[in-house]
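Structure ticket #2291
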Amino acid sequence: MKNSIVFSMKNKFHLYHFFSNSFSILMYLLMSSVNSIAARWGLSFITIGLINLAGGISYISASLFFGRLGDRFGHKKILIIATFFFSFFNILGFFWSNTVELFIFNIGLNVFFGIFYPQIEGLLSKEEKLLGIDPANTINRFTISWSSGNVLGMAMGPFLIVRFPYIIFCYGITLSLASYFILKRDLSKNGESIAFFPSQKLKKPSNKIDFPRIKLYRKVYRTTLVMSGLVYVAVLSLFPKAISMNGLPIALSGFIVVGANIGVFLTFILLGRFKIWVGNPKIAGLFILAFPLMTLFIFFPPSIATFFVISLLAGVSYAVPYTYAIFYGLNSPDKDQGKQGGFHEAIMGTMWAIGPLLGALSIQLFNSIIGLGIAATFLSVVILLIQIRFVKITRSV
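Resolution: structure written out below.
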């Protein structure tokens, strides 16, 4: 029985899914730690927003610049260089003592992950296509691998940074160094190819992609992703302080805010299992209704249950357009998957740059998370109008 399970996993997931999962754990350990320490030091919502703004700009710059370099020089080569330097960068985490150091550390970690994810995305979309794997299955397994890591990283980050901070940075050093040596060996042995024997189920095709209008699909879903993502990252970055303002321990905030990551993970599983959204804007638009539903809960009286439900629905409302955007982005008829991955991750950076600051201004203006609800209401209206217009265009042409 155990052997059959292991065999099944080996034929569905491989080394680069392990990297995606492990580094996603690290990413959210570090990001949640930065925001938790900022809240513990009593920094204002605006200062926390500015810290995330600096990180987001760094992420955008790294994604756009290094994404296309992977297409030219090889994704594995870029990953080798990045993991080597990041293993030493993690040492800085042992010396946090002031706000400036939080700024510097957040910029550095965002540069690394702005390099890391476009390379993984470009490598998977190119090499798995050569293996005959259906593009929807490529996207689904990638999203499940990193989102499952996010759940653990977000839940444990605030707790560990308060109680056992050295565990986080030791994990970062060990993972980065081990990955550096594994990647070097894999590049030497397999070149840019992925050594993998996929299950036949992964090759089963889903609905047809509307390639003549794929740029329109990308534009619409990337725009929707930015708008829904603004609230998602505001929840992740600002809820530790908002929770502490309501008399709850910061060390427990991760176990509440992790609802967002759980929502993301469950949504990826659902959309991967039922691919009726592929090439179908009308059905895809129904899933996006999770965003206005989440907005309603922001106006409920604050409590542990309310914070958790808001987090959960914020994760769902982010994961839906994320799936659509990355699917239509990486399914490029041109050989520019690294470039498209860079664009996709630049959207992530835009969210992290603007979302926390927008949320901070909204909350501070009303001295309550009701301010975030008002901002989310405006975004909900815009998102719904975009989806209605998009459905009309695709039906009329």
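Closing remark: The chain has 14 helices and no strands.
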